[in-house]
Amino acid sequence: MNASLTLSNHVRWHLRCERLCASVEGPAGTEESWTRVMALKLVHRFPQLSHFSIQRISVGPARLLSTSRQSLCVACLCTSAGRCIRRQGCLRLQSNCGIRSLTTTIVREPSFVASSSVGLHRDSVPRFQLTLLHRPTAAEEQGFQQRLGICSSSRQVFKLLHSVEIISDTMAAAALHRVAEVEQEDNALRDPTVLEKDTVRALCFQLEQDSARLTDGGLVSALLACTRLYLDPWSTLMVRLVSESQTRLDRGQMSVDELCTLGQAMLAIEGPGGVMLEQVMEEIQRQKPAQWSLAELVAVYKLLQGILGEDGKYRDLLNAMHTHTMTVTSRMDPAAVSGLLSALVTLNQTQAMPLVISLCKQAVRHVPYFTDEELTDVLGALMHFGHSDHYFVKAMEKYVPTMAFTSHPETVSKVMQFFGRRNILSPTVFDAVAESFVYRADDYSSSQVAQQIVAFGKLGYLPPNAGQMFGKVETILRTRFSHFQPRTLLNLLHACILVKRFPVNFVSKVFSSYFLQQLQEEDTIIERSVLAQLTQIYITVKLECPSYEGPRLLPKYRVKSFLMSGRSLETPVDPHLYNSVKAGLVDLLGDRQYFGSKVLTPYCYTLDVEIKLDEEGCVLPASHVDEVYKRIALCIDGQKRFTTNKRQLLGKEAIKQRHLRLLGYEVVQIPYYEFEKLQNKSSVVDYLHQKLFPHTYRLSWWKLN
């Protein structure tokens, strides 16, 4: 055959070459190798063929290939070489521009589409091809993912895509995910024009054209990435990906991880009531959780978290998952621990406390390695389930001083909220946060400022730099007063008075009719706990700030008792401890009539025990109103009135005893840790005698019949 071909012969040999290339469908083997060799021989024998483009090469399961900016010759396309094998290099294949919209069909197809390649704006972007001829190795995929993870902008992602020679469909989907991550801001894209970038267009065009040839993992990952980029669900790309996903789902061959990825995508598109999502969950429920990998367990938890596991619909599945998860918590990394705890909170799995405890133990190892977001979720979960671990607290005490100045403001605030909510007093943590607060307060939102100060007030702790810290609080209140929500502001000011910091300059605003009206608008009816806070601020100003001359709190906004269910400003007396003390008082005083129990004072505080004395120091019956010279307030303080790890009264108990003294009571404290040491009735009587009447020797002299 003459090597010099007419145009018709060119076309015939071109078609023959195309048919040979199109026969490459299955895994590499003898037939495929022979086909490659024949195609290569044709090109070498008839070099003119390199000037002709191949319109389509139909291949098997897809891999997405990005070559260099130059188009490859036919020899490159028909062999497994990662570069051109011709000594003189590839002859450039010219192509026209192809333009498409992400939310519509293609406006103009490229004139050169070799093995589903895409040429956009000539050589301005890489050409992407779906083929099995150039499979990236596991090491190449891993390296790409690592480099992708450090990209902090979409431009860096595009630059990475231009730099690699081979990418799979899952790698391409991962690139779209990374673009979404760096561009997302408040449920939208920071820069929507990123979707018009040529590289994004090229990727999406290829995914649209060859959706049927994507791997299951690449298909569902690409679909999820598109939802994260907020593409129109009715665009051609999305419709094709969803349609193909439905086809794969109907086959019933997807892995659990792929099902979860598809479920997340359909959750974003259809919401929790979607038919396709329901089918995904049916497939997952057919699986056995005991056989799932750790990654699959985490994926299913996250999917259920999004669905919210309505009405106990997936109770059996969750219980089986909890059982299996208990056996693998020791292998969980920080992201898995945080993700599972967050899911358990959303699903309100209060019956899974053994799992929560196990996850908390694993969290101890990861405290220094959690991201700010992960640590925030962990702390939120522990607060939700009411759990704290001694070793976790110790780990936090080591970590917080290193992060207080650099971590996200929300994370620092969550740390303080955790310690405050769990009544854990750690001077190490509180001092570090107090020091950082002075320098970082301007970075905090009004709610974050309040969360941190409320913790100090609740635990009744003043750091060494209290003056600087509360000076900063006053500056913030003065410059950002209008930024605070009414309840947030009230919580902040109330926390201040618990630790003897009196916000006199702002009390007048709190007592104003305008502010009280704002409180009422928030809740329609102001809660009793809110009125109690207002009342205690009013009493504090009256007792401890005699120079205050501003408006007073109107009587209709005052409560009569701080002791109430829920958010009480007093801790109810421990019944067991109270009964033991009461028995000892009867033995000491000779009769039950000589002391009153749970006595409400005119200043809203409730006394555990009240003992009245006359001017000579004799004990009066509790019913006596006249001739009372002295009143003893016995505070029977159980464990709940102290911080959990130190013998320090909570802020609300400290202010109560402080106010009782200002009101003229002699406050006698009976702490649980002293009383529990008493072995018998005699030691109890001696202890109470020493507490109540330390300077008296004959008890009979102190009783008045």
Automatic annotation (TrEMBL):
One of its GO terms (cellular component) is mitochondrial matrix. This is RAP domain-containing protein. One of its GO terms (molecular function) is RNA binding. The lineage of its organism: Eukaryota, Metazoa, Chordata, Craniata, Vertebrata. It comes from Amphiprion ocellaris (Clown anemonefish). Keywords: Mitochondrion. PROSITE patterns: RAP. InterPro entries: FAST_2, FAST_kinase, FAST_Leu-rich, RAP. Residues 632-690 form the RAP domain. Its main location: mitochondrion.
